[in-house]
From TrEMBL:
It comes from hydrothermal vent metagenome. It is an enzyme of class 4 (lyase). PANTHER family: ADENYLOSUCCINATE LYASE (PTHR43172). Its EC number is 4.3.2.2. This is Adenylosuccinate lyase @ SAICAR lyase.
Length: 463
């Protein structure tokens, strides 16, 4: 019976992705452990620690399909160790070679390394997601480079910006996550093979070489010192997932807010063939995916706290912290993949309404150019005097619903400074966007340069 939304069949993948579920499925989890055992045996055979024939048998049988799954399930009802029922089944499948299974390793070596194998797959998907989202944002920023809209601070109308600039802000933040991803990999993608308390005593004098060969076969790096109780690497991954999700939630929230009926500058649009309507109000089209991103983010933030707290270990092994982390990692990873997939869907189908942006830009008329007026007058009157002269006129215009332009024209001190061209400029707030267009261009160039650098680095690594 399915309890968690990850496992739902009729409501499949509302809060998960097929790839995420596959990575952390029970069968995948156990297969990662078996891959570790096969790699360990082959590495020990290469060094003459165990017979090569035994290693071959272990490799052949280190597949869940070759093991007695019913016996494993039955053994878990009796054995409270996280791994040993699987090891017992593998030993039985290997016959006399079974005595060389799990030779010198400890349970945590296997489970930690299996978790890193899974996280490596997650990071690969995340990188692909980020690049696709980045493509969408680059195209959006370029397309709406000069599309004026009202900027808002403290939820109030402020001064004009462009939608291209808003998109460039999203793009820049996403670009930093792309950098964090590459910086995280060498710290995170290291397996574990150091024995019961991190001394490698059971692995013998060749322990370091066994670990190097084993991790090489698994496609992982190796840490000089055991990280059995040093979980900063996993905590960093949890924080990274939380930051990624927060960015997705921030963008989704902006789209949610700007899609309100009274604003309607942006609108979440469901893909063709999908519906997001109300059950009782046919005129509505709800921003369901943006809302899901927000809900998922709240769980990711909580889970990142759980993982952070799991850094606090006692002595050389502390399952209280480990189990807490092992429970949280699959959830936070799957939720993060879901959040990014949803963000990509929203941006791919986003409705942008330039007419509404123009209408909202003009709704407060000359008021939104108060900053321009202040600094135009300051050049002649000084900023303090300009502020004192301008503020009462703005308040009067707001209170009496009068034209600020008319009040400015009737104020002798201000009229002496402002030319007819200056007054005419108050009718064109779209011209007061500062360096927004250049900032957009620079943001796009930065993204392109970083991607070229990443490709060059990848080519260098491949050589």
């Amino acid at each position: 019976m399915a309890i968690h939304p990850f496992d739902f069949k009729l409501q499949a993948d509302v809060f998960s992705t097929p790839e995420g579920r596959d990575i952390f499925a029970e069968t995948s989890r156990i297969q990662n452990w078996l891959d570790f055992e096969a790699a360990l045996a082959l590495s020990q055979a290469e060094l003459g620690i165990i017979p090569a024939a035994a290693a071959g048998i272990i490799q052949d049988n280190a597949r869940l399909s070759r093991l007695d799954e019913a016996a494993i399930a039955e053994e878990y009802t009796r054995n409270r160790n996280s791994l040993m029922p699987v090891i017992k089944a593998l030993r039985q499948a290997c016959g006399s070679a079974g005595e060389f299974v799990h030779y010198g390793a400890t349970t945590q070596d296997v489970i930690d390394s299996g978790q890193i194998i899974a996280l490596k797959q997650v990071l690969k998907i995340i990188k692909n997601n980020l690049l696709q989202i980045e493509d969408l944002l680059i195209n959006m920023a370029r397309r709406y480079r000069n599309q004026a809209m009202i900027g808002r601070t403290h939820s109030q109308q402020a001064v004009p910006i462009t939608f291209g600039l808003k998109t460039a802000v999203w793009l820049s933040e996403l670009g930093r996550h792309c950098q964090r991803l590459e910086e995280l990999k060498p710290r995170l993608l290291k397996g574990q093979l150091s024995g019961a308390v991190g001394t490698m005593a059971a692995l013998g004098n060749q322990g370091r070489e066994v670990a190097r060969l084993t991790m090489g076969r698994l496609g992982l790096g190796i840490s000089t010192v055991s990280w059995h109780t040093s979980r900063d690497n996993i905590a960093e991954a949890g924080c990274f997932f939380a930051m990624l999700s927060a960015t997705a939630a921030k963008i989704a929230n902006e789209i949610f807010q700007l899609g309100k009926t009274e604003i309607m500058e942006l609108r979440e649009s469901p893909p063709s063939g999908k519906s997001a309507g109300s059950s009782t109000m046919p005129h509505k089209r709800n921003p369901v995916i943006c809302e899901r991103i927000a809900a998922i983010n709240s769980h990711i933030r909580s889970l990142s706290g759980v993982i952070m707290e799991a850094m606090i270990h006692e002595d050389e092994r502390d399952p209280r912290a480990l189990w807490s982390e092992w429970l949280a990692v699959p959830q936070i990873a799957v939720y993060t993949l879901t959040s990014l997939q949803y963000l990509q869907e929203v941006l791919s189908n986003l409705e942008v309404n330039p007419d509404a942006m123009r209408q909202n830009l003009l709704s407060h008329k000359e008021m939104i150019l108060s900053e321009w007026l202040l600094f135009r007058l300051s050049a002649v009157m000084g900023k303090k005097r300009a502020h004192e002269a301008l503020s009462p006129l703005i308040k009067r215009a707001q209170a009496e619903k009068q034209s600020l332009k008319d009040l400015l024209s009737a104020a002798p001190e201000i009229k002496a400074v402002l030319s007819p061209a200056d007054l005419s400029n108050l009718d064109h707030p779209e011209n007061y966007t500062g360096l927004a267009a250049r900032i957009v261009d620079d943001a796009i160039m930065e993204a392109a340069a970083r991607r070229r650098g990443n490709r060059a680095g990848g080519n260098h690594e491949s050589r």
